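Please, structure for the following, as tokens.
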Amino acid sequence: MHAPLRVLVGSLGPGLLPDAAAEPPAGTVLLDLGPDHPGSTGLLELHLWTPSGTGGPGDVVSRAEVVVGAMHRGAEKLFEVRDYRQIAMLADRHDWQAPFVGELGVCLVGEQLLGLEVPVRATWLRTLLVEHTRLLSHLGQLGWAAGRLRPALDLHPFRERLRQQTLRLTGNRIHPMVARIGGLAADADDAWLADERALAGEVAAVAGRLAPVLAADPGLRGVAPLAGELVWTHGLSGPGARASGHPLDLRWDAPLLAYGELAGLAPPTPWTTGDGAARFATLAHETAGAAALVAACTERLAGLAGPVEVRLGKVVKLPEGEAYLALEAPLGVAGFFVVSRGEKTPWRFALRTPSYAAVAALEDLLVGVPVGALETALASVGYVVGDVDR
């Protein structure tokens, strides 16, 4: 059997991969999906076999093997020796493209076990921040496809403006660290809400124009189609699964936060062929939908007074028992499972991450893909390495 082609996907920064200018070792391909793509800030290794064994651009992948563990963060074990305030701060770091969703999930599952209801204003502001985070994550993944268009479209300025909005609200540009069991540590004023609404409108306009262009792009159409049955086989969810005709979306199918009052503002994707074009077009379509949800939340908050937090003691202890909660994160279903023995630290805290399922699916998804189309196929799949090696 031929030796496998070794593909390293990630940032070509110092200490992570060999210098981009250096000659890679024989049989090794370095792929950098750009600074904004969620799969770039980490290392994913693929072993690929082709019939000829040469790995030339016209060669086709006949077998794929994913190698994970190069960036194991040990998040779940760290959670077990931290109190719940610290866990929320750590949880926004495994999927660093969607940090608020991680910290919010920890707080929501804690509130579920406590039987705690947060103020209405906190619920709406949390919903806004989840969709704000969805914009950041989706725009990062779309950046690769938008950058290859003629003329190229640079989405990075929109992401930077969204991060500045995060900074204005929370004091932190990347990791908000604003969610608390009981609500939020910061509130939005009218000026912030107005700027957020205006920015969401700009993003919606760009994403709305981008979606049909990506759907019709000949360089994306037919690349790495994901058959519907593989969605269930690998437990896939999120935009990638919806692009293959599986419409599960927990925002509408099992609504939490304020989503029950927002149904209908984010219409289902019209692209379900499951190929690279459908995945990218669905991302753009759902980016416009998330922007519409952000605008709706800002309008609701503008006329809604009240606190954003239930004050709890300095040390939060969950009652003895267990609880599970799932959220529709930008990349798919994110699950949070806690087992408490009544202490300030959990006995067990486990995560169900969408990235792990997406990376596992690559072993089937990449079979039949020409080596020259590997970059396109991988760029169309959403994952964050820390969300895999958690």
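The chain is about 40% helix and 15% strand. The longest helix spans residues 120-147.
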